[in-house]
Design a protein that fits this description.
The protein is mainly α. About 80% of the residues lie in helices and about 0% in strands.
Length: about 425
Amino acid sequence: MGARKNGWAWVPTLYFAEGVPYAVVMTLSVIMYKQLGISNTDIALYTSWLYLPWVIKPLWSPIVDMMGTRRKWIIAMQCAMAVGFGSIALLLPCSGWFALSLAAFWIVAFLSATHDISADGYYMLALTQERQSFFVGIRTTVYRIAMLLGQGALVTMAGWIELRYPSASPHTPWVAVTATLSILFMLMAAWHTLVLPHSKHDKSGKRLESLQQLVNEFGSSFSSFFKKPHMGIAMLFMLLYRFPEAQLVKLISPFLLDSQQAGGLGLTTAQVGICYGTIGIIALMLGGITGGIVVSHGGLARWLKPMAWSMSLTCLAFVYLSMSTHVSIPVIYGCVALEQAGYGFGTTAYTMYLIFYSQGPNKTSHYAMCTGFMALSMMLPGMIAGKLQETMGYELFFLWVTICCVFTIVTAMLVKVPDDFGRKQ
C-alpha cells in the first residue's frame, strides 16, 4: 500500500505507457512503412498527419475533466490501445493494408493523446506537490526508456524476424511487433487496475450541466494566450525553431534503410533499431540531461543561442554521411549519435521557453496550447519532407535542412527571456 500511495508502484509504469505509443506512432511506423515498400513522399506526408491528435488535444481535454475520473480514463485508454495495436496486427496482411493500418495508427494516436491528458492530470491529483517534484526526473527517464523500446528493441525484433525467416511475408515481422504491443497494453491496463490508488481528489471537475461555463472558461483562457506580450515572436519561435529537425526526423530512418544505389546507407532493420532507436535515443537523453544541467547553472537566456547552434551544426553529420561513398558502421553510429545529442541539447531551450511562456494564471492550459503548437511545428514541415527528398535526392535534401537552420538561429536571437529564468536560485 505504501508503494501505491507514494507513487513507486505506478508512476514509472504510467509514464512508460505514455511514451511507448508515441515512439511507435512517430518512428516505428515510418520504419515499418519503409520496409513494406511505401515511398518516402507518402511516408512523410501520411505519418505527419499522425501528429494531429497531439496538436489538437487541448480542445478535448475538458471532456476528460467533465466525464469520469482520470483513473478510469487511464485504464480505458490502455485497454483501447491494446485493441488498436491488435487491430493493426490483423489489418497488415489484408488487401488495402496501408490505408487501413494508417487509420488504426491515427486512432491509436488519438487514444495516446487522451491517455497523456488523463495521466498528467492524475499525476498532479494523486501525489502531493513534494512527491510530484521528486518524480519529475524519474518520469522523464522512464519516458526515454519507453522510446528505447518503441524505436529500438521492437525495431530490432522486427529485423531479427526478417533475418530468421527470410521466406516469410514482409508483413510478418510487423504483425509480430504490433501483436506484442497489444499484449503489452493489456498487461499495462491490468497492472494499473490493481495499483492505481483511488484518490479523493480524482473526480469529475465539471458536470455536463456546466458545459456553457466550461466553454466560457476555455474561451477566456484561449484568448488570453494570444494576448500575451511578444506573441508574434513567440509564435515564430514555437513554429520555426525546430523547422529543420521536423524535416530531418522523417527521413533519417528511410536514409539509413535505403540502398546505396538509392543514395542511402543500406542498413538492415536490426541495425537501424540499434543505431537510431538505441544509440541515438541514449545520445538524445544525454544531450537533454546536459542541457538541463547547464540551464540550471547559467539560465536559459545564456544558453539559448548556443543550444540553437548545437541543434543546427550537428545536422552536418547527415550531410557528411550522404556525401561519403564508403562509411563504416561505427562512423554511421557515431554520426547519428552526434546529431541526436545535439538535438537533445538544443531541444532543452525549446522546452524551457514553452515553460517560460506559459507562466501566469492559466499556466496549465497555456502550456497545453504551447505543446499543441510544438506538435504542429513537427507536423507541417514533416508533411513536405518526403517529396522534397525524392525531388532533390538525399545529398541536396540534407544540405537544404542545414540551410533551414537559419530559422532556428534567427528565432533564438529574437526571443527574450529573463536572465535568471531556469537558473537555480
